Amino acid sequence: MRVVSGIQPTGNLHLGNYLGAIRNWVAMQEEGECLYFLADLHAISMPYDPAELTANTREMAAALVACGIDTDRSVLFNQARVPAHSELQWLLNGTARMGWLKRMTQFKDKSGKNQEGASIALFTYPVLQAADVLLYQATHVPVGEDQKQHLELARDIAQKFNNDYASEEAPVFTLPDPIIPPAAARIMSLRDGSAKMSKSDPSDMSRINLTDDADTIMQKVKKAKTDPEPLPSEAAGLVGRAEAQNLVGIYAAMAGESVDAVLARFGGQGFGAFKPALGDLLVAHLDPIGERFRALKDDHAALDAILVKGAQKAALMAAPTLAATYSALGLAR
Ligand code: TYM
């Protein structure tokens, strides 16, 4: 089992990242060989500030360690320190089809009405994402629901490359499987149950950051949008109540319980009772993470050392696949 996944180092780690992906990253360290990276090369696909990117990359590394990524067991690095990612992307550009990339919903969402003004990087980024996982022969990729389409593209690229340039007996790439947590596949905004919780939402009240202190977390949960009805006693009663469904889903994911088990306790009660319980649960889980994060984040030398060491290991692990790709394509190096 080879586990590979990445996260963009833009600003804070939020509860959606944590429940949708990072918690699985931590858990999967028990089961296989894991490589986790900060997708800093991804960040240049949208307008950004270079100094902030450097700072955010370190900060995200600190956040991942605070969440439980063990850098003695897992390989933690930033993409830019491992040039094999960019190299493999170029090699795979020959296999990826325009039509496949045009179907990517994230490009449509992020470019909005101004597709002509979007960067080429935003369009071709999913090929880099394919390179990210194919480079290490990933078998399992823990992600939230919004990355599923990108993983399907990675499989399509791997399959076509294997068909076109390799043989069935000796494929160059492994087809990776996405690992999506059913209960927390898509954590929604606290202000709008139809929008996903996201770093790019202008309102900080829409998300819980892993670095928020206890008071801020309680405040955000109390102000979260809800409806006037009491909670139902079964999951079926949440249909059509997006905000209620999201808050109960967050509680269930955080507590490791089913939605029905949570509703068996809170059914019939209003949000006046449920919200403080949810806030307490979040604070109990996130407070120790925040504390570890604050202890780590300013030690730039230690964080850089972690990322440099991780990049060295990753580069060694990437080398055989990169060499096999050049060779399959008939490129001498
Ligand atoms: P990014 O940085 O947007 O998100 C990191 C991870 O968090 C998950 N996630 C969520 N899960 C549930 N609910 C939410 N509201 C929510 N918001 C974010 C994402 O699904 C993701 O797993 N392109 C990727 C980074 C990447 C990558 C890769 C991932 C680059 N290369 C290779 C896997 C494999 C991204 O922008 O994720």
Describe this structure as you would to a colleague:
This protein is mainly alpha-helical and 333 residues long. It folds into 2 domains: 2-184 and 299-328, 3-Layer(aba) Sandwich (Rossmann fold); 212-295, Tyrosyl-Transfer RNA Synthetase (Orthogonal Bundle), CATH 1.10.240. The chain contains 13 helices and 5 strands. It has helices at residues 15-28, 40-43, 50-67, 84-93, 98-102, 105-111, 120-134, 148-165, 214-223, 242-255, 259-266, 271-296, 300-328, and strands spanning 2-7, 33-38, 75-78, 140-142, 177-179. The strands form 2 sheets. A 3-stranded parallel beta sheet has the order 1-2-3. Strands 4-5 form a two-stranded parallel ribbon. The structure holds tryptophanyl-5'AMP (TYM). Tryptophanyl-5'AMP (TYM) is lined by residues 5-8, 16-17, 20-21, 39, 42, 129, 132-133, 141, 143-144, 146-147, 184, 186-187, 196-197.
Low-confidence stretches: none
Largest sheet, spatial ordering of strands: 1-2-3
Main CATH class of the largest domain: Alpha Beta
Radius of gyration: 21 Å
Strand count, sense and closure of the main sheet?
3 strands, parallel
Mean pLDDT, nearest integer?
Answer: 96
Please give the share of residues in helix.
Answer: 40-55%
| CATH topological fold name of the largest domain | Rossmann fold
Find the structural class using helix and strand composition: mainly alpha
Strand content: 5-15%
Please give the count of helices.
13
How would you name the CATH homologous superfamily of the largest domain? HUPs
The total beta strand count reads: 5
| Shape-level CATH architecture of the largest domain | 3-Layer(aba) Sandwich
Order of helices and strands: EHEHHEHHHHEHEHHHHH
* General shape: globular
Terminal Cα span: 30 Å
Q: What compounds sit in this structure?
A: tryptophanyl-5'AMP
Number of domains: 2
